[in-house]
Amino acid sequence: MLGFALDVIFFIFIARSIWKLVQGFREGYAGSPQAPPRGNVPTHGVQMARDPVCGTYVVPDRALAISDGSRTFFFCSAACRDKYRAKSA
After folding, report:
1. I need a surface site. Which of 13, 18, 42, 76 has the fewest CB within 10 A?
2. Residue 43: which pLDDT band, with cuts at 50, 70 and 90?
């Protein structure tokens, strides 16, 4: 009797898992309005700048910047900025 009860519970678990998988596919395909937002993903591309010291691409709004004459350089960290300053001096 216990084996039969465990089999029923297992069958219910498998059936529910398959149903959730099918629902996920259907919502993904249909673009369900109930889908949660995807966080801080921009709706358009962001122009990135390359750090002249290490070559890392950074978002200018979040990077450290130095203006050198008519150009502005963006850095990923204070260490890269300091290396650039030491090299330029």
Report:
1. 42
2. low
